[in-house]
Amino acid sequence: MSIEVNNESVVEVDEAALQRLALYALDQLHVHPDAELSIVLVDEAAMEQLHVQWMDEPGPTDVLSFPMDELRPGTDDELTPAGLLGDVVLCPQVAQSQADTAGHSMLDELLLLTAHGILHLLGFDHAEPDEEREMFGLQREILLGFAAEERRRR
Hints:
- The chain is globular and about 45 Å long.
- Helix content is 51%, strand content 16%.
- It has one domain (2-148): Collagenase (Catalytic Domain) (3-Layer(aba) Sandwich), CATH 3.40.390.30.
- The chain is built from 5 helices and 4 strands.
- It is of the alpha/beta class.
């Protein structure tokens, strides 16, 4: 699995943890091992520009996903085809603000946003209540499973 993390922000981030979460999530979702994913961390000004350009909404946001080959999750019996999954763009400053409100670390917030962004790349959405239940249920499973893996790693 090719997972590139590029921190273009001024905020120090545990890039290796984001990479481990992405690898874990893609494995759980049966994505082909030759798939490619890019995670980019940007400052608020860059995120605001992307948010306006692509979503026509003002202000910076926490995460944006830009799918490339429109891959979908595989199954226990069949992986996705290999390809370019796309880009997940994160804004650490917005994540820090949300983490403060939620009462957890910025890293925990970035891990949540990374899982969320990956699910969007794989076609999940939360516009409708049933879609939201499915997507947020998977997001929760990924985060809990990853946390358990991290505890075993130590």
